[in-house]
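Researcher: Please predict.
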Amino acid sequence: MKIKRISALISLMAVMIISTGCSIIESDKSSVNESAENSITEELTSTVKNPLTGEPGYNEKAVGKRPAAVMINNIKASLPQYGIDSADIIYELPVEGGITRLMGIYADYTNVPYICSVRSCRYYYPIIAHGMDAFYCHWGMDKTIALDTLNRLEIDRFDGNDSSLGAGTVFVRDAEREETYASEHTGALDGSELESAISEMGYRTEINEINKNGAFIFNSPDSPVIPEGSVCMKAELTFSPEYFSTFNYDREREAYLKFHSGTEQCDGKSGKQLAFKNVFALETEMSIRNAKKLLDIDLSGGDGYYISMGRAVPITWSKESDEDPIRFFDKNGNELTVNAGKSYIGFIESGEINLE
């Protein structure tokens, strides 16, 4: 498909930004315009489907390859994040102190964006990433159970605190943020360097057998299915009094728009509010493990909800081993079929999910 008028593309981007109520950081406006003008003059629409979203237009060269998982800061002082709008799946789990941290999953490791700010590992995140056979990218770690988990599972990873694992190449300090943000909120992953870094490390790039069919069983992208459940125009996961994620259904877009503790959660580069076709709210057991208030989170399974197209249905979920992906099941015990599109997966204690 030829794009004959670049100005039309730029105008469309502007309309999208205004419609979400989000804005691009002032210093980035010129770079976005330059990117629009310089990047696409002719584009071919691929019929190949993204294994994590079920949507067409996927890079054919990335078929059968491993995804990348990136730890993303979600503390309020670090906002806005860069690169989260490009994630195919976003996981959100609590960490110590009542805050949460995100893990973005990017199906095509050769096309990961510039992501900021990148934060440290807690043991349950690499277990989830390992179950998806993903390269794991983080900036530091808890030196107890998280380090033990990374070593035990022999995770293929990159660490912003380790020069042998990408510090200074894959990971950089964001120059603009260094002027106004605390140091721990300035770490960034330069996705353009990831492909060569993976090659240099000699990491396997072919996806393993258990994940070769993708993250979910998808409905046709042209025919989304309304789940047979209760009306759900709003879903809220309360991780703590100060940290809660809200999803409001947009009928026109057929997607849930994400709010971070009452405020639109937007990508600081694209200006877009996060939007998801599928929202998974998964209940599980959580407890504090030590004086540092690090958490233990049960990843073996539990109950939850699948939310899509303005409806919510009860589901169960399970993760049979560290190597297995998370599976989702309907009330009859059959593996869940989900709508094509991006997904949010949040882990929450029982009783902290509110559906309206």
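Model: The longest strand covers residues 301-308.
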